[in-house]
């Protein structure tokens, strides 16, 4: 049997493992599911006859190399910074590799060696990055094939809570890594291009510059800008495009409320707060407020944020129990961002019966035969439960499908790559539809911008 080594059995691996096991008989596969926690690997494989769970410490070079050498193909579902040693071993033993992570500089540096060994190192084949690339390139290539010229490309994606599980004032719960949510937008100004002009949004105002989106049957959303929208301009072949913008989707009102944390300084991850372990939630809030001999923490918070007692923003803060003097942070040597993450996790963790939701929205503006046109492409995916979430499905299924296509010789282009070629995106997007990941495309009046006002 062909041996598929899956390294990492965390949340994103659930749908990936289930899919490959469902194909294991017809495709002659045996899965080796490796994780630091043997119990987790066992839980994900569920005693399936075509799967072997193993404990694997990837920092043990001999252990790691032994597992990779025996595999027909390797899937790494580890955090992005841990892929590189896996990749080097795959190069050493001439094994193809699949990951869902962004291509790092270290991974890209292997490209020539990977090509010379006729290997495929497929990256960015999850959700975002992944399904966003594939669904975008499909439409862009179709427009070009008709002789159209791209004018505008906007792309938005968000991991949200499903409508039936949306029961807090923020209309949000953590469906993925909470730390990434808390640190979103940091590390430099967001940059994009609008009507040929470069635009920059510094972190301090990022969450007050949003765009509204309407999705049929799901209502209104908003999106704030990703840090670098220009990253894929050349990769997508959009060097001459007038407008290029990528953003993160939230429910309307989230960004304005989140901006309160930014303005207070609670999202800062650059310094440690003294005696954080013994700090109460109330003391944490008060740390960012000026001293006053008589005003309460609540009054000082409202004054500095310029919100009234009957403002929904105030209700959102109260809902998080931020001012509780009895709740302790219990995190030693913590940064403000780490403490905020802890506080939010109390309120925003998914309940056992909660479901998550993925929303993706692309806008394509183009000129064809002298006429400006627009196509809007939208996808909504609802999770099944806490194990087979929408996030696990949209990250894991494309990884699994790409793995099979590589094994079966349907993807042949060698090198370190992302899924922007037709041999990759056409079969995967088609098969994803069978699993409820469907893009609905609509022709719209061209959105554009007023060039006199940009």
TrEMBL record:
Alphabetical list of Pfam families matching this protein: Sacchrp_dh_C, Sacchrp_dh_NADP
Protein name, entry field: Saccharopine dehydrogenase
Source organism: Flavobacterium hibernum
Tree of life domain: Bacteria
GO annotation, cellular component aspect: cytoplasm
Alphabetized PANTHER family for the sequence: ALPHA-AMINOADIPIC SEMIALDEHYDE SYNTHASE, MITOCHONDRIAL, SACCHAROPINE DEHYDROGENASE
Domain Saccharopine dehydrogenase NADP binding: 4-121
Domain Saccharopine dehydrogenase-like C-terminal: 126-437
Sequence intervals crossing the membrane: none
SUPFAM superfamilies: Glyceraldehyde-3-phosphate dehydrogenase-like, C-terminal domain, NAD(P)-binding Rossmann-fold domains
